[in-house]
């Protein structure tokens, strides 16, 4: 059992707070094009510089993947901007973050690839009487742009980005916001995510269940040290709920 685990033999889960990218949406299919477009724009079209920016953000070119818990995998636009800024004289964090948010919103909307059919999945969870939310370090507009395509927004009781007024992960503000919106207490909430910052948000927020998934950048061995359960993807969540 992970250090600090809150799992019990019978967990009365009444709400689920999902990460978005890497959890509901396949990370590589949704975000790699967006990352490349953003880096090239920030670099003013200099492809060599854009590659250096991607690497600074956590991209591994030899594997063509983004590493877990890096700026590109887990950070918001301001955090990515701060990582890139030393190589971009003339930019401010605020201006660069604004550019990144605009590109990320447009590109991720165009490329958004769900890990399963999201509307039926959320409808089944709602039929269980569960409250549902999304907590992401993407922007609020990014939530609406990507998930709005799949008929999900109307099934959510709560949706928050890093700029929604609840702070950003790994701080627990989005857990607190979800509980305030739904009337649940943290012990009745499960947090589901693909990176350590998702799981840490849940732990700091005192939730009753923390679940890792393998559809993003996180790897099983690392997630298992922090999660109560690690699943191949959210498609296995309903079976887990049946066992609790």
What do you see in this structure?
This protein is of the alpha/beta class. It is globular and about 50 Å long. Helix 1 crosses helix 2, helix 4 packs across helix 5 and helix 5 packs parallel to helix 7. It starts with 14 loop residues before the first strand and ends with a helix. The longest helix has 19 residues. It has 2 domains: 142 residues, Rossmann fold; 84 residues, no CATH class. The N terminus is likely disordered.
List the helices and strands and how they pair.
Elements: E1 15-18, H1 27-42, H2 47-57, E2 59-60, E3 65-66, H3 71-74, H4 77-84, H5 93-111, H6 118-127, E4 131-135, H7 140-147, E5 158-160, H8 173-182, E6 189-193, H9 196-205, E7 209-213, H10 220-224, E8 229-231, H11 237-243
Parallel strand pairs: 1-4, 1-6, 4-5, 6-7, 7-8
Antiparallel strand pairs: 2-3
Helix pairs in contact: 1-2, 1-5, 4-5, 5-7
């Amino acid at each position: 059992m992970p250090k600090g685990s809150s799992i019990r033999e019978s967990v009365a889960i009444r709400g689920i707070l999902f990460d978005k990218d890497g959890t509901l949406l396949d990370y590589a299919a949704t975000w790699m094009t967006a990352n490349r477009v953003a880096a090239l724009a920030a670099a003013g079209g200099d492809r060599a510089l854009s590659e250096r920016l991607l690497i600074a953000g956590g991209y591994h070119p030899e594997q063509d993947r983004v590493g877990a818990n890096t700026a590109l995998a887990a950070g918001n636009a301001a955090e990515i901007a701060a990582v890139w800024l030393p190589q971009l004289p003339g930019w401010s964090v605020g201006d660069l973050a604004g550019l990144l948010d605009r590109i990320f919103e447009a590109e991720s909307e165009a490329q958004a690839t769900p890990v399963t059919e999201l509307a039926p999945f959320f409808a089944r969870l709602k039929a269980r009487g569960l409250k549902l939310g999304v907590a992401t370090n993407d922007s609020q507009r990014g939530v609406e742009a990507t998930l709005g395509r799949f008929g999900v927004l109307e099934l959510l009781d709560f949706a928050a980005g890093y700029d929604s007024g609840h702070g950003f992960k790994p701080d627990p503000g989005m857990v607190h916001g979800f509980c305030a919106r739904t009337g649940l207490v943290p012990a009745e909430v499960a947090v589901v995510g693909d990176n350590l910052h998702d799981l840490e948000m849940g732990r700091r927020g005192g939730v009753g269940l923390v679940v890792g998934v393998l559809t993003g950048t996180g790897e099983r061995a690392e997630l298992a040290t922090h999660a109560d359960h690690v699943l191949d993807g959210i498609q296995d969540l309903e079976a887990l709920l049946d066992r609790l």
